[in-house]
Write a structure and sequence with these properties.
heterotetramer, A: mainly alpha, Ferritin, two-stranded antiparallel sheet, 13 helices, 2 strands, globular, C: mainly alpha
Amino acid sequence: AELQARFDAIIEADQRIEPRDWMPEAYRKTLIRQISQHAHSEIIGMQPEGNWISRAPSLKRKAILMAKVQDEAGHGLYLYSAAQTLGISRDEMTEQLITSRARYSSIFNYPTPTWADMGAIGWLVDGAAICNQVPLCRASYGPYGRAMVRICKEESFHQRQGFEILLELSQGTPEQHEMAQDAVNRWYWPSLMMFGPPDDESPNSAQSMAWKIKRFSNDELRQRFVGMLVPQAEVLGLTLPDPNLRWNDETGQWDMSEIDWTEFNEVLAGRGPANAQRIQHRREAHEQGAWVREAAAAYAEKQAAKQRQAA
Amino acid sequence: AELQARFDAIIEADQRIEPRDWMPEAYRKTLIRQISQHAHSEIIGMQPEGNWISRAPSLKRKAILMAKVQDEAGHGLYLYSAAQTLGISRDEMTEQLITSRARYSSIFNYPTPTWADMGAIGWLVDGAAICNQVPLCRASYGPYGRAMVRICKEESFHQRQGFEILLELSQGTPEQHEMAQDAVNRWYWPSLMMFGPPDDESPNSAQSMAWKIKRFSNDELRQRFVGMLVPQAEVLGLTLPDPNLRWNDETGQWDMSEIDWTEFNEVLAGRGPANAQRIQHRREAHEQGAWVREAAAAYAEKQAAKQRQAA
Amino acid sequence: SPDVAEYAMRLGDDALILSQRLGWWISRAPELEEDMALGNIALDLLGHARSLLHYAGTATGRSEDDLAYWRDEHEFRCAWLFEQPNGDFAHTIARGLIAAIYMQELYTALSASTDASLAAIAAKSVKEVAYHRDHAVQWTLRLAGGTEESRARMLVALTDTWPYIDELFRDDELHERLGDAAPLPSSLRAGFDEIWSAVLAEAEIAEADFVNPKIGQSSGGGRFGNHSTHLGPLLAEMQVLARRHPGATW
Amino acid sequence: SPDVAEYAMRLGDDALILSQRLGWWISRAPELEEDMALGNIALDLLGHARSLLHYAGTATGRSEDDLAYWRDEHEFRCAWLFEQPNGDFAHTIARGLIAAIYMQELYTALSASTDASLAAIAAKSVKEVAYHRDHAVQWTLRLAGGTEESRARMLVALTDTWPYIDELFRDDELHERLGDAAPLPSSLRAGFDEIWSAVLAEAEIAEADFVNPKIGQSSGGGRFGNHSTHLGPLLAEMQVLARRHPGATW
């Protein structure tokens, strides 16, 4: 009870919980779930874009894309490290991922059939991720908050690069313009769904907000995101695929079409286009690398034994 | 001695030695070496052309090429079977191939950088192979001779297809014509070398001719081949890359430039462009298929055991 | 009619892409007999693809090669199953098993098409597909009943390939418009399920042995030009030479 | 001069093609740290390639992208080593080891080039290549000294990759014409051999452990546009999008 009181006080004072601090079991579990899910999303998120590294249409774009996908591996690493401070191992998390016991962001279950998807993912998916993540930089758990600071900085760089890809395409040949519009059409709604179900149907949110892991509601974040997109779409010369989208002076909100959650729920239930492919890819990489990890461990062990002998 | 006399009589009468017949050990060994080398050549020979199945420029050509490469697998199979009648197993021969203890035709150590190589291989390499092989249809060892009858029939079909590919290219766009001429330039000399060293430097030939495994000398076959090529090259509208090539009425032979055996000897010694690649490809296919062959064997064994139990 | 052409293109693309995948195995199969068997299947499928694409092209004056080499990814109509990579031999067999059972049901029904050309192509193809099915079934039994390793690999292959079944049996407006010219895909499902279940039963495999409960049937999208990420690189390689020489004949 | 341009193109192609190969590993490496490390190396090499191809193109008014995307196979000048497939992780390491030792010798010597641009590119690249070499050496030691399986795989990888060493060190007329603008490849061999032998010794590997006595050094031919069969499909994939949209910018 005393511990609980101290924990509550830290949270109340907007200070940070550190790995050595006592924390309620539910808090720890929530964090592990959220951080590892976030890490898995970075790792699975390497695939849809990794798919275009070999075909990037200019060497400059190839370099930028390679660096981006590599950054995602880095984000995965920080986040796994943050989760490890809560007492779960990377192996355990990997195992949960490849056996589908842990989730990752559903957005990565869509394929990337064209180069313009590299732009749309950067602009819309990374954009939505940033809106979700910027508040997490102040998350009450220290290692998570600090990882997010670093990640957010890189993500906004990625978003700008996505925007640039789309701008170049939109102003390019008619075929390129069409490619860009098509990608925005395909990614717009899924990116809005990244903020999760409407507030009145989101059961976990209240507790997370009380714990200051989460600081804004799903709908608040979605509104903020749309508000950011509208002027940018104008600059791009691309249309957001919602005929009902307009600013409502009275409510001080963006009016928009009702989101059709049917598809989202299908993807979430494992019936998106690429769910199976994503897990297969990750599992194969993991399993085909097993002998390498074993070799590295065996070698390290031998080296350590030699050093002990020498000492 | 009586056995030897009977063997000699069969050979003398141009009749055939069959697996159940007695034969001198040297004859058996020579045949095993030659037939397995021939089988290996078919199997390794699948690679340079197999490389273009995925990129064949029309569906008709794709079908023809696929059928051709598949025929080569079939030839390999007949020949391995013929060799097996002499008391060597397929596993043993495969092992010899992937450890480079057995040879295959050096011609397959060249790469196939362009589609025109599919034509040049058919016209020149298969053409040379036919000149070498037609006499083998009368080889004194029965299973070998019979395998060769079937193989030669298919090979001459392949040669005609190669000729057609070159004809189409030669009469096509200037780029296609150039592609065809370039391929002929690269494959002409290596195909002449397929008949082996000049007669005065070919030590094994005499014995093989006495045993009626072989029926014409290297140089005789080479002359015959060139005589076949010259009129065909004219029809193709392509040039054979030998400025000194002309018919000599006095000798009744084709005059030609001295063959430069340096490169041939390099390739033979394992220093051609693709020697390493060919063996690596075959070894990987063999090793990666090991678990499948083991599964098939285990399954067959279990089925047999069930049948025995039922009986 | 354009509808029949669109339908023929779907079937032709399925056969073409699967054939392209299988062609890779020639010179790489676990044994020579399989170089030949997989090569045979690839050749048969290529034959079906040529007939179907030739027929599909007549509506718009395009040749089989125009359709195979000069369409972009979003213009292809194959289902996701056929685009899946070869993986190990077990993955190739799992994909081949689903494909062959499906194709046999399809071509059997299509032999009764009111469209004479489709009926003729189907009648010819159905015999070859019977051999493909037999090949896949035999290998499924061998791998499932062979060694521990082969059984484990077969199960993984089924896990990875199973999600692409449903797409094959989805009806859409095209099928409604076609009427008796083509069977409704959904009408083939019962026949498929019967064979599929019988094969799994003989291999002593239960669905629970391979189905990941968190992953359902892929929504696919190939019939409308939305493809898995595997198709793009396949087409890049398949089309590279033809596109390098526009207008050339070969 | 055209000679310097040709030389820069050779080096640029080596870096470009190896980078293209390594990019495949990103999302497929044995551990996340390797996704990052191999990605880093690929990025460094791509940077070198861009500098070198940019410089090579100035002679003829072509951009780095003109050279990367619009040359056909026979116009590429990379050596066969760099075209070799990734294989398993051991093959990638063996190829990377040879490449990095070679490149470090090369860029060290080239830093003293009388051609200021080549010297500057080399001076910048040599630091990065030192890291690549260290990465490959560490993994060679780990794989050779790790488990039985990893040692066996490392030896096979050396068997398959070793034949592509000689091509890197062959002098030709271009080098003679370049004079002090570039080192003779043969002059780099002693330095290469020293490091190579030292690494093998530390890994307790003798040449006899991996050299197939029947297979010598490949004659290659990449410097003159004659490539292994692996380059064609690589280029088909790399160039497909750019070529689909001639004249477009990205």
